[in-house]
Amino acid sequence: MWQEKRYNSNNMIEKAIDKSRIPQHIAIIMDGNGRWASKRLLPRTMGHRAGMGALKTIVKACNELKVPYLTVFAFSTENWKRPVIEVDFLMRLLIEFLHKELTELHENNVRIHIFGDYGEIPMDCQIEIKEALHLTQNNSGLVFNIALNYGARQEIIEAVKQLSQRVTTQDIKPEDINEEVFSQLLYSGTMPDPDLLIRTAGEMRISNFMLWQIAYTEIVVCDTLWPDFTRADLIQAIKEYQSRDRRFGGLGQGSAD
Ligand code: IPE
Ligand code: IPE
Ligand code: MG
Question: Which of 98, 104, 236, 237 registers the highest number of CB atoms within 10 A of its CB?
Fold first, then answer.
């Protein structure tokens, strides 16, 4: 059980990070599954399977560290460009993950959300997702957002369409549109913006992930490939985040008058 494991690694956490300044929202671009497999002369799909193990570890760790929100990029709107066999495997893997982990996630009070249009994915996958959403809807622990068939530009366009519709029906005046109104139409709704964005496998790009929400997010890119990403790597990223001087366009804490 997660509860039992929680205190085993507490010493390490205690020393490494300031528990009073845990990021409220961590977003992760889980990248490098294919490279992990290639390095081992395995098919790319085996990298995705290994990546599921890392995901399980990180969801548990975030729950234990009392991170309120975790958003992971599982499948982008651009990932449909990949071979059908890989796309199919990824969908099956998601079903498997939800099937195997749902009971434990629910017992640990995790609430699951999906960012993205999951109406476009295979029906059996949709059924599994609906069950997960329904079962965990009243949970009050970690909010676990799975970005699936997600693209930030598409998300923004959808919000613009909804706003245009509301303007047409005179439900809202153009002059009343502001950042708050707009934000609430995104998948993240009223959730806080990510404080920390982690990208594994070294690429220095955003790949169409949460473009609106990461305006002032601290970005940590690590070379570790996603299947190798551990709880210690997560703690390291949080430590890095805690060392940053977040200025939000103002003057930093260390600046002179
Ligand atoms: C991330 O790993 C998983 C998904 C995008 C679904 P990749 O499959 O992109 O792995 P690399 O980047 O090819 O190593
Ligand atoms: C981003 O990784 C998407 C996910 C992690 C699901 P990609 O591997 O698709 O990104 P690019 O193609 O390297 O930009
Ligand atoms: Mg990749």
Answer: 237
Q: Are strands 196-199 and 25-29 parallel, antiparallel or unpaired?
A: parallel
Radius of gyration of the chain from its Cα atoms, rounded to whole angstroms: 19
Take atom 12 of ligand 2 and give the residue whose Cα is closest: 207
Over the stretch 146-192, which tens digit does the pLDDT of each residue have?
Answer: 999 999 999 999 999 999 999 999 999 999 999 999 999 999 999 99
Q: How far is the CA of 206 from the centre of ligand 1 (A)?
A: 13
Distance 34 CA to ligand 3 centre (A): 7
Range of the structural domain that residue 109 is part of: 23-151+192-242
Count the domains in the chain: 1
The CA-atom distances, in angstroms, between 79 and each of 86, 109, 149, 152 are: 10, 31, 8, 13
Q: Would you say residue 103 lies in a domain?
A: yes
**What CATH number is associated with residue 68?**
3.40.1180.10
Q: Domain for residue 255, yes or no?
A: no
Q: What is the pLDDT of residues 75-99, one digit of tens each?
A: 999 999 999 999 999 999 999 999 9
**Which residue has the CA at smallest separation from atom 11 of ligand 2?**
207
Supply the pTM of this predicted model. Answer: 0.94
Residue-level pLDDT at 16: 83
Let me know: does 109 contact 142? Beta carbons within 8 Å. yes
Spatial separation of the C-alpha atoms in residues 106 and 132, rounded to whole Å: 9
150 close to 76: Cβ distance less than 8 angstroms? yes
Q: Tell me which H or E stretch contains 198.
A: strand 196-199
